[in-house]
Amino acid sequence: MQSNNPLRRPFPDRDFGRSTIMGKAKVSVFVFAVLFFLRPQGIHFSGRNVFLTCLGYGLVTFLVSIAYDYITSKLLGWRRNGDHWTLGRWIMDSGLLLACISIGNFFYYNATVGWTAFHPIVLAGITIPTVIIGLFPIAASGMAIQLRAEREHQRVAGQVQLATAVTTAAKNGRLVDLADSGFSIDPNNLLFCESRQNYVRCVYLAKGEAQEETIRATLSGLEQQLQATTILRCHRSYLVNPNHIRQARGNAQGLRLTLVGIEEEVPVSRAYVAVLRSLMVG
Question: For 97-109, what is each residue's pLDDT tens digit?
């Protein structure tokens, strides 16, 4: 059951990738524009090229942001997806990133003034107010992003449920040996497939009951093998058979599907919501 506390509800995924880099670039351009055009109080440019100095702050912001996401995601293994990735965690993560950016720009500022302000008190005076003040717009924007995503996905979930009410059961077809593993199944009976590193967990219906088999394969390989069937990709770690959807519910990260014969939910990430919607209600 979804919590009434927005801080504990799922927040849209933020996996490291091209979209992350583009988002950081936009923020960095915004930082440059604010400094160059508004000249906030406390920023001194005497004797320096204003354009290049402001560009430097934007570049430092971009590099620190990318380094922070890469180190925490790729090296430290922080996961910014799934039910544990909530609005509260996103706010804390954004605050930590903001602190790192402040520290990076503190070093950059000192490099431009001959290290005359290189002192821990100055660093604290810059970083602490920046983080405290910055958390307010961060929290407000985060709640807006979460609410907008929840409403959109809940709307799509309602449409999918309506569509599944009139979906006819698939007829029996030929057996397929999945990935030459020796495990043969009628694709119409598959419920979903879940990637588990070098293996794939296949959950299927047999005589009306859910059963499962784990085979050595890749999800991409199975997706290609089953492309002529109703099975489709719904998440980077899941394939699903839309003919067996019993119920759908939406949250900020996408949809959660309940299938016939099982209580376990299958996630549909935001990138695949439109694909499922077009298939089920198009």
Answer: 999 999 999 999 9
Among 79, 84, 86, residue whose Cα is nearest residue 6: 86
pLDDT at 172 over 70: no
DSSP the chain: ---S-GGGSB-----SSHHHHHHHHHHHHHHHHIIIII--TT---TTS-HHHHHHHHHHHHHHHHHHHHHIIIIIS-----STT-BHHHHHHHHHHHHHHHHHHHHHHHHHHTTTTT--HHHHHHHHHHHHHHHHHHHHHHHHHHHHHHHHHHHHHHHHHHHHHTTPPPPPP---EEGGGSS-EE-GGGEEEEEEETTEEEEEEEETTEEEEEEEE--HHHHHHHTTTSS-EEEETTEEE-GGGEEEEEEETTEEEEEETT---EEEEEHHHHHHHHHHHH-
Residue 142 has phi, psi (to 5 degrees) of: -65, -45
Please tell me the distance from the alpha carbon of residue 280 to that of residue 282, in angstroms, as a whole number.
6
Q: What angle do CA 64, 23, 42 make, to 5 degrees?
A: 55
**Angle subtended at Cα 227 by Cα 196 and Cα 163, rounded to the nearest 5 degrees:** 90
Question: Please, what sign has the CA dihedral across residues 88, 90, 91, 95?
Answer: positive
Total-model pTM: 0.84
18-33 helix and 50-70 helix, angle to the nearest 10 degrees: 150
Bridge partners of residue 203, in order along the sequence: 192, 212
Q: Is residue 164 scored above 90 in pLDDT? A: no
